[in-house]
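Hey, why these numbers?
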Amino acid sequence: MITALCWLLSATLAAAPFVPTPREQLIAKVILMEVVQDGAARPSGTRADPGQCRRFQANVFSEAAAGYRANGYPDTPLFLPTEHNDPEATGRMAGTCWDMPPLSEGNAFYEVAHYDRVSGQGRKEALEAAYAFLAQVKAGDVLQMLATYNGGGHGTHTILFTRPYDPRINMLYWADSNFTNRIVDGVKLGVVKAYQNRSVEEVAGWLVESPGDGATLYRVVDGIVPVK
């Protein structure tokens, strides 16, 4: 486990200077916190409670970010926003993106890019657009998606990428919770999976099956500083 943690940390900071910035430290901390929970079953509410996968990510991020702030806002705790968008305001399906409060309120993320499956678009063209979207992934990015998964399941999911996309291996690596879960005494237990990986083709295929589906890629803002 220690070897794996060291490898993840070095992979996350591969392009960083010898002394990582506070932003890079925060991203590495979030990833490592999810790695050490791999396989753990975490309580995540009842059958009726929605959005547990994104709430898991928000909780981990808030814990990791307790010692950091955005430059200029020393008294404002940082958070990952997870409230689904209003389709009437964005023109996008609920679950493909989040409402984004300003940095001044503590929102530590910004939108990098988004993808939407357009009705009437050919599958080849749709896949090419989805590939281009996913090729932008960096370690620490969070993806919110509405998709059709292998086996036909359809719905929203939130994941944290643990490595940058590398076209030489064409794979995506991430950590998540509640992609698999179980109910025990009426309580939903989401199983943390820190070593998820799929080919870019497979993930792109999830996004193009149904018109209206899509995803948004979010990244930690610059200007992160430690709490003084």
In short: The chain has a mean pLDDT of 89. Residues 119 and 211 are 5 Å apart (CA to CA).
